[in-house]
Write a structure and sequence with these properties.
Strand content: 15-25%
Number of helices: 15
CATH architecture: 3-Layer(bba) Sandwich
Oligomer: single chain
Number of domains: 1
Radius of gyration: 22 Å
Largest sheet: 8 strands, mixed
Helix content: 40-55%
CATH class: Alpha Beta
Shape: globular
Structural class: alpha/beta
Length: 396
């Protein structure tokens, strides 16, 4: 099968890898508009469930991804820089550029043709392809050109956010909420590698305008944010430039489609769906899409049947995740209205139960989990579970 993948993100690259692992006879090209090594954004996060799938699908690339990833332990919620609550757990993060390089090298080792600085805006240039995979992100031009056929729905979130880096290397996943005269502003941060961390700052529209971010230049914006988050950043700097451009304030774009394929064009990753960054699943879901699509193309006798089953399966699987992401986005959009925390523990509990499901005794159990001795036991249990998972997967 001749396959053209438009977009060189994690989803498209991993799909190409997954297809070649199943059948090396496929003729696959990945077309990415940006130069090699150039990417927007800082780090991505994932958890054991994705690692299990990656090792089961292609151990070679899974080993390489794990090698460029950083382990973070515990999740912390800070309130005004001096009060902390703990959520426990652990996860992994990797610099986005490192992840893309690992996937590009593995794809090339499997004889996938990876072309950078190659922008595709017209499907007629791909007329000889049996299958075209649109993995070109939330602003996918291929999807936009066929928006009616896909039944595309676009919703823009209310809160401004900005995706930054910092030279403060966190060893935990950190949420920091700071109250200013203009209202609440917060970030969530996690290590990107051993030298930098990702730091996504968000606030409501009212706070954003009250702090005059609508009129501040890049340097002035960074200096004010460094001042607001000074304690949690330990005086470290924020970094705006990535891919040569300064970071801009954005509003989250929620993408959904009533179908993910049209003729021989199929959507994957953010081109098909987006989930709010507060649940941290974008890269994970794109790579799961890639494996699922490769499975159906390998198992089914016809292309139409494979695409139909992929479409039905993945859209059904994502309904609950997207609903949870919308709930999470709405909770943060109404921070100023419903949040008047006296302690970081109260704030952390409200944040972790934002999608409901808490019982009358949940808060008491949550408070008990803040006791250092109990946290120590929980961390040992996490360590044991992590070791068993790594041993089962065959991590190096």
């Amino acid at each position: 099968m001749r396959i053209s993948c438009v977009g060189g993100g994690p989803g498209a690259l991993y799909f190409a890898i997954s297809m070649k692992v199943r059948d090396p006879g496929h003729d696959i090209v990945v077309l990415e508009r940006d130069p090699r090594g150039s990417t927007y954004g800082w780090g991505v996060v994932y958890w054991d469930d994705l690692l299990d799938l990656l090792y089961g699908n292609d151990p070679e690339s899974a080993h390489a991804i794990r090698d460029v990833s950083t382990l973070w332990r515990d999740q912390e919620v800070w309130l005004n820089g001096d009060d902390t609550a703990h959520l426990g757990g652990y996860g992994y993060s990797a610099r986005r550029a490192d992840l893309l390089e690992v996937l590009a090298r593995r794809a090339e080792d499997l004889d996938v043709e990876v072309q950078h600085s190659h922008e595709v805006t017209d499907l007629s240039r791909l007329a000889d392809a049996d299958l075209i995979v649109a993995g070109d992100g939330a602003s996918s031009r291929l999807r936009q050109r066929n928006a009616r056929a896909f039944g595309t729905r676009v919703r823009t979130g209310r809160n401004p956010y900005i995706w930054l880096g910092t030279d403060k290397v966190f060893d935990s996943f950190v949420f920091d909420f700071e109250e200013t005269p203009a209202g609440w502003i917060w970030f969530h941060a996690y290590p990107s590698n051993l030298e930098t961390s990702t730091c996504i700052v968000e606030c409501t529209e009212r706070t954003w305008r009250g702090l005059e971010f609508d009129s501040r230049d890049d340097n002035d914006t960074l200096r004010l944010l460094e001042k607001i988050f000074y304690q949690t950043l330990d005086g470290h700097s924020l970094i705006s430039r990535t891919r040569g451009d300064v970071a801009r304030w954005l509003r989250f774009t929620e993408i959904s489609n009533t179908t993910w394929y049209h003729d021989n064009l199929v959507l994957l990753g953010d081109a098909a769906h987006t989930t709010h960054f507060t649940i941290g699943s974008g890269t994970r879901l794109a790579m799961i899409d890639a494996m699922a699509l490769a499975d159906y193309l390998y198992d089914e006798e016809t292309l139409t049947r494979a695409l139909a089953n992929y479409d039905q399966d993945r859209r059904r699987s994502l309904r609950r995740t997207q609903a949870s992401a919308r709930t999470s986005m709405a909770w943060f959009e109404h921070m100023d209205r419903h949040t008047h925390p006296e302690t970081a523990t109260a704030l952390a509990f409200a944040m972790t139960t934002r999608d409901g499901g808490n019982t009358p005794w949940s808060y008491q159990l949550f408070r008990a989990a803040q006791i250092p001795a109990i946290r120590k036991v929980q961390r040992r249990c996490d360590d044991a579970g992590r070791w068993l998972g790594a041993h089962r997967r065959g991590e190096r």
